[in-house]
Amino acid sequence: MKKINTAQLKQLVEAAIFVAEKPISKQELKDSVLGEFEVADRTLSKIVNELQRDYQPRGIQLVEVASGYRFQSLDALSPWLSKLWQENAPKYSRAMLETLALIAYRQPITRGEIEQVRGVAVSSNIMKTLTERGWVSLVGHKEVPGRPALYATTKTFLDYFSLSSLSDLPSADAFETMTENEQSSSSLKVLNEAPSNQ
Amino acid sequence: MKKINTAQLKQLVEAAIFVAEKPISKQELKDSVLGEFEVADRTLSKIVNELQRDYQPRGIQLVEVASGYRFQSLDALSPWLSKLWQENAPKYSRAMLETLALIAYRQPITRGEIEQVRGVAVSSNIMKTLTERGWVSLVGHKEVPGRPALYATTKTFLDYFSLSSLSDLPSADAFETMTENEQSSSSLKVLNEAPSNQ
Amino acid sequence: MSNEASTPAPIQQPLPLAFVNGEALIEKPEDLFIPPDALEVILDTFEGPLDLLLYLIRKQKFDITTLPIAVVTKQYMEYVDAMMALKLELAAEYLLMAAILAEIKSRLLLPKRSDESDDEGDPRAELIRRLREYELVKNAAEDLDAQPRLERDLFIPNVALSESIAPVRVDPSVSLAEIVLAFSGAMKRAAAFEHHTIEREALSTRERMSYILSIVTKDQFTPLEALFTLEEGKSGVVVSFLALLELVKEQLIFCIQAGPYARIHVKLGSHEED
Q1: Check: complex ipTM more than 0.90
Q2: Separation in Å, CA B99 to CA B117, B165, C180, C203
Q3: Considering only the top CATH level, what class is A94-160?
Q4: Residue range C120-152, pLDDT digits in tens
Q5: Cβ contact (<8 Å) for A33 and B58?
Q6: CA nearest C97 in A: which residue?
Q7: Which residues of A touch C3 (CB under 8 A)?
Q8: What is the pTM of this model?
Q9: pLDDT tens sequence across A186-196
Q10: Highest taxon of the source (chains A, B) (predicted)?
Q11: Interface contact A14, partner B, CB < 8 A
């Protein structure tokens, strides 16, 4: 195995995160660009931490999202940066956001369960959009009559909202409190057993 | 026109160059993200120069190309960064292996001669792949009507199979007897561990 | 639940949050009057009966846990009537909720028997639970919408690749055994026309033939000595000589000697061409 000095290693990790087409994990770094070097986990973690610090005062930041590390622009700059695009960012309806929130907090969940909580039917269009965006996927079938499909959120969903895990969801605490207070309701307990997502 | 402090301005310019889909010129910066600020040309030039200096020791560089500024990966890192786009070529077909074997054992040999032994035409693709891999090269032309090309194996071919000369190629008969005699032959195992490429 | 009570209602007017516990303290529902134009817009924005109920409760600053069912039911029915009058697409869910409200109201009107245990429960309990749960989802959706996200708040840098980056193509690995087996396979199939066996000597001669062909050129004469490597010893010289003879025989090269004992030169190609 070749050796590489720390300065070069840092440059390589930095450039790799920048040019990779998706967020890249430490393991993926080790399997690809760092493949031929002997890099201890501790060294790699130190480098990533250093890079995160280096970029703190800059216009872009190194963040960890669900599927790995990526650089992204500083949130505060969005009012001006959005001028680089002619089109406005897509807006999502309340129905879509409520459905997505329910899937995120109560996964795995069936369409029937979503409708029960929201008190209205969930349009097929919403499920289609969520699936097409790669935010939601079918993860199985509930073993009840009709074997309805069970939905869960994906890493792509977390990446899109710049979250590294489901527990980082903004209202995660409120949902947990509700679950704790309603021990009697078995459907709520599912939240705690949410799969960590593939 | 609003005012903006230099630190924020620098962050904004930096982020804009980063997130723009194409190289962005100073004028484009002024027309888009900097639209609502009063930014003197001198100030903008100074910021761009500063950014270029800031990134000099890093894994990516701020460079000026024909249509504007963009960040790009450090040239020296290319050999490793390339691994992010690694693609595995499909395994070689039997036709390919037989062609290679015939060239190895019967060199120098023409394509016609290979076809004669194999009983089928040898596709140009096969010859191209073997030549591109550096295993086979054109060494002359046979002085018969049509002056067909003569092929031979190269030093790269010998190196790949850890042979010091073609005379080290196992004779086909001896090899067969050997494999028949010992199914779990350790020497076979050695043969299977061909070097994983230079 | 304290957490619940402190959650600000999104459609609330910007007034100080003051809970009025019990119907006696409630102002008359004057704000129920909405200009007809606005009403259509407002009704259209409800995400269903729970959303509408929640709106009514929050608007009146009722405490969700002490749900004044009579007032809420009355107001709810007024909205449903308005929806019907405006011929808005009235989902069955709204009518179902109206039935639920009416049922709860009638059960509350029945005189409470003293021997009834508390476990029997408040008929409003289930509705209150559903309202709280829905409110949680509604707030979660709003929080999710406020969460910085790609395309709108966060942008991913586009860093160009230096020109020297080319995708690494990993060639398949081949073992020597595969080559040998391929050769013997091809030879077996060709056995009908081919009979000779491969010998080590022949092989090295063939290799030397390739080697010589790669050295000599068409345009220049190569001295014969250059084709021999003395370090290989006698056998090496013999192999080179045999290779030369074979190449001459196949007319791949030709040798030329200016006079007796003069240097012999080798050139690629045939005599006919000169």
Answers
A1: no
A2: 10, 19, 11, 17
A3: mainly alpha
A4: 577 888 899 999 999 999 999 999 999 999 999
A5: no
A6: A119
A7: 174, 177
A8: 0.66
A9: 443 334 444 44
A10: Bacteria
A11: yes
